[in-house]
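#struct-pred

JT: dropping the chains for the assembly here, can someone run the whole complex?
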Amino acid sequence: MAKRDRLSGNEAVAVAMRQINPDVVAAFPITPSTEVPQYFASFVADGKVDTEFIPVESEHSAMSACIGAQAAGARTITATSANGLALMWEMLYIAASSRLPVTLAAVNRALSGPININNDHSDTMGARDSGWIQLYGENNQEAYDNLIQAVKIGEHPDVMLPVMDCYDGFITSHAVENIELLEDDEVKAFVGEYNPDFYLNDRENPISVGPLDSVSHYFEHKRLQAEAMKNAKKVILEVAAEFEKLTGRKYGLFEEYMMEDAEIAIVVINSTAGTAKEVVKSLRAKGVKAGLIKIRVYRPFPVDEIVKALKKVKALAVLDKCDSFNAAGGPLFTDVTSALYGRADGIKVINYIYGLGGRDVKTDDIEKVYERLADIAKTGSVGEIYNYFGVRE
Amino acid sequence: MAYNLKEAVKRPERLTGGHRMCAGCGAPVVVRTILRAIKPEDHAVIGSATGCLEVSTCLYPYTAWKDSFIHSAFENAGATISGAEAAYNVMKKKGKIKGDIKFIAFGGDGGTYDIGLQSLSGAMERGHDMVYVCYDNGAYMNTGIQRSSATPTFADTTTSPAGSVIPGKTQLKKDLTLIMANHNIPYVAQSAPIGNFKDLHEKAEKAIYTPGAAFLNVMAPCPRGWRYDTPMLMQICKLAVDTCIWPLFEVENGKYKVNYKPKNKLPVEEFLKVQGRFRHMFKKGNEWMIEKFQKDIDEKWEMLLKLEG
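RK: done, full complex below.
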């Protein structure tokens, strides 16, 4: 039986962690993710979980301890944001290449510098090619649901990759919303026991992890890692189907909002989707054929499915809450246009960078994006591809 | 049972032959001596920082480790093994593990005194039931003999070369063993592979079987970096101890004990002169270097005796 509650995003994720009851949690505080280990430490202190909590001295050590723990045979979770994720960078790659399904609650915050504690996606976008599966969520419910699914996705034998559950700092992490929680025993049954085939703490079958991998084998190992990421797409959908059976909440690789007959559309990630859906609704009321795609699974990137969803669109805007500093466009824009190239040519695509360092995202701004898309669809003239909104020029 | 080398070496090797460490290197001697102190019925999870030991003992698809082994990166052997130890605690509680597992992390002085100091400090402060062993060869040997904070004063390395203006490394060696003693952990010791390995074996045994965090700092000469003839390994260790350049001592629950006080404390030249890295100190006009080196060593030795009280 589902329970209705009112929780902040961080609280919801901490509750999910309590219900998952992982073997080890190692974390270091950083705004806005700090509350996750705080709440969790109180669950440990009150004996509500069996977890060993390691209050490490840095995020580098957090991920290192997670790697040691997961390799030793433990289900392991951590949480971080921004510079904390950046300090983990080296170890993110090592977790993925060692095929250790660590789970990380990544509370999106602008990456320094200058230092800024508010939300954008520059932290996890930078880690997009680290070999981690990345799930993004619009609100508290999705942050909660994604964390529970993340554990099961990462640990699947065809995957064995670490997973990030990404949600927006403050907007999602600190805002209190209505949420539907699963019962503890439902989560327990859903994630099951973590019983890896090979682990350090197996006295009968000692293993070596993290060898020097020379020219003769390194490439094959990376190739297998790439294959695991390909396999992940199918597993993510299977886990989502099982989750839907349990909760009635449907998850896919992305959400299509009024896309069936859409002529103009935006692609967006996380909480901005909520704001943008309001705009789509009001445009639809005026007879404008507007639609929206909200990415849930960014790694692996759902190329074929995105193309299928977008191929009838005349003009498209990709919204990046992160800049790439490549003088060409944001990361999501680059991925979407790469997907379309040769598969759905002829769609006019523009890019907007927005909301950096927590700058407010207003319905007015998004309306203007749709107005421009309508104009592009009408005239066929694209103009500037790489744009910004909400910034003083 | 009193220590007996002949008996000790009867235990099966936990680091097998066939690894690729250099002839005359101290590190595998140190590692094998320490691992001999593990009871045969116990399993070990061994971690290594990136370094000579790691790249020479675990090259895919081979491993020289009979126990479980993990390497993840350079600066985090402390944190990595602390994670494995935490996993053990919860798995043991859940009944998933029968029997005992011991957790040991190895790092060179680069991975321990320098880049890995924070991770080490954190792991020791948190009190994981583990042993961290620094095999101190006094420079970043794996990357080609660059100076570290463990490099002795005046040593010639590739980033502290003895030139016509600057006489090798100008700073003092960091005193890591005392830093670790001040973490107030139950057991800290400094040792070296000498004689019948009694000192190192007994300290390893104490470190491994004392509940909580323990730290061992063990001298492990490097023939390439120190530039000595490989058969001189054991002699050099003995000279380091007899000159008091590398005193053997332990700190058990805060109590210092100097384990060996040479009857005839040898002059530091005896240790310096057999190594190429100190050759420039013996050139005419550089006598002051040896005098300073001697003075520094004497002061540190006196300080250690005072700590013992």
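JT: nice. The longest strand of chain B covers residues 101-108. The domain at 5-308 of chain B is CATH 3.40.50.970 (Rossmann fold).
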